[in-house]
Amino acid sequence: MLLERIYDEDLSQASYLIGCQATGEAIVIDPRRDVQEFLDLADHHGMRISKVAETHIHADFLSGTRELAAATGATAYVSGEGGEDWQYGFDAELLHDGDTIQLGNITITARHTPGHTPEHLSYLVTDGAFADEPGYYLTGDFVFSGDVGRPDLLDEAAGFQDTRFAGAKQLFASLKSSFLTLPDHVQVYPGHGAGSACGKALGALPSTTVGYERTFAWWAKYLANDDEQGFIDELLEGQPDAHAYFARMKRQNKQGPALLSERPELREFSTEEVAAGLADGSLALVDTRPVDAVHSGTVTGALSIPSLGKAATHIGWAFDPESDDAGLVVLADDLETAAEYDDHFVRVGVDELVGYVQSIEGLPQTVPAVVSPAKLQDLLDREPDAMLLDVRNRTEHADGTIPGAEQLSAGKVLFHQDQLPTKDSGPLVTFCQSGLRNSVAAGSLRRAGYDVIELAGSYAGWSTWNSQNQTQNQTSGAAR
User: Fold this and answer.
1) What keyword terms does UniProt attach to this protein (predicted)?
2) Confidence bin at 158 (pLDDT 50/70/90)
3) Which residues contact 317 (CB under 8 A, 6 or more apart)?
């Protein structure tokens, strides 16, 4: 048996390719939407992808199940559990608890493990060439290394009310009836790693075992003591912000994402074409340079995506394809680089990238407003209607912030403008921890029409300045 983990650092998301070397068949579990890597991997091993499956209706990325099935002719499998409200809207074989998929010598058994979502499936894998019992467990968003999937995303991102409590109860039951009944040696392969918003304490280890989690996971003591309420209380406390685009992912994944094969190819745009598109609103520029370069001058109305490594996450924060019909042009040196951005963008359903431009010279430019920590209070005194806005996660905000700051995370600001002052009132003075997330949020807010002033150095810079200022004041007081 072959088992390969394909990990996306951008979204902290894991897909898996399992292959039977005797028959040359392979299945992919939870593929992302840019599927070429799976095709290349199967080809490398001399295998044919004949099946593709997913664990649940994902919220954090756009599924590639339909895309990969269309590209290979593979049979698609999705959950048939969870009730009427959790049924998929595209053609696929439905799996219920105990159903199996046969892949040569390999048997994959679906287990219904609700809690993160009502329809969630996990997959037990038996390598029939060596054993007659399962040795591997692909748990999706059920069990992570050191954590379990959060049950509050439906409330946080999809507009449900108080489903977190029922979900937490279901997770407790799933751990008891499905996970802890397995032998300690069973290897666990989760759907996410550290950095994912699908849990609050995810470890970075690519895999774990049932025995390790049974012994050391934070939730283990509650299961050992049959303490359901203690488990629920700790599980729900301190969960991070859920990005607003998660709601769109849920809807699109349930219905079935559009096929990428129907999109036009990227091309290079001339400066004149971009300028004309910016003028009539048909195009928007994605500035991919570092934050310091953007602060020196950028295209008016440009979005800031300072890191290719987090381009999917950041474009999901900064651009809403359901309300913005502009085509995106990325600042890139060549077509190959632009295609890399496109691969990241489509993972969160932003299919609007139409091409690239090599330079911003000749395009209308502006210098973003920035204020130093030393001048911040003077600015706030001059602008009494200004809103000091912390775009970090609420857990970061709770650990310490600038006095008077309101909190609305960078992943939510564009989509929750009802929580911001009107655009004709005072400016928004924004900050994150170091400035990168703030640049993404500020660019999207400026494009939406807000007057935004970024805090230089963000919270880290302000903290350093504040500490130095207090030390100087104490020294001056002692001298007097």
Assistant:
1) Metal-binding
2) low
3) 243, 244, 245, 410, 411, 413, 414, 440, 441, 444
CA distances from 22 to 38, 102, 160 (A): 20, 13, 46
Q: What is the mean pLDDT of residues 70-94?
A: 96
Distance in angstroms (rounded) separating the CA atoms of residues 478 and 342: 59
Q: What is the pLDDT of residue 142?
A: 97
Share of the chain above pLDDT 70, in %: 97
Whose CA is closest to 205, among 149, 151, 143, 153? 143
Mean pLDDT calculated for residue range 211-227: 97
- 337-to-49, 110, 314, 334, 440 alpha-carbon distances in Å: 28, 39, 17, 6, 20
| Percentage of the chain lying above the pLDDT 90 cut | 89
Last residue of a domain, one of 251, 277, 307: 251
236 pLDDT above the threshold of 70: yes
- Residue 171 is assigned to a structural domain of this protein: yes
Q: Which domain holds residue 459?
A: 369-467
Q: Which residues pair with 108 in a beta bridge?
A: 101, 125
Tokens 């203690």 sit at which residue? 230
Is residue 275 a part of any domain in this protein?
A: yes
Longest dimension (CA), the chain: 85
Mean pLDDT of all residues belonging to the chain: 95
What pLDDT band is residue 408 in, cutting at 50, 70 and 90? very high
Task: Give CA–CA dist 325/322, Å, rounded.
Answer: 8
Rounded to whole angstroms, the Cα distance separating 465 from 453 reads 18
Q: What is this structure's pTM?
A: 0.94
For residue 385, CA distances in Å to 53, 362, 381, 422, 426 come to: 52, 36, 9, 10, 5
Residue at a domain's end among 339, 366, 393? 366
User: Same domain for 129 and 225?
Assistant: yes
Banded model confidence at residue 264, pLDDT cuts 50, 70, 90: confident
Number of structural domains found in the chain? 3
Residue 221 lies in a domain: yes
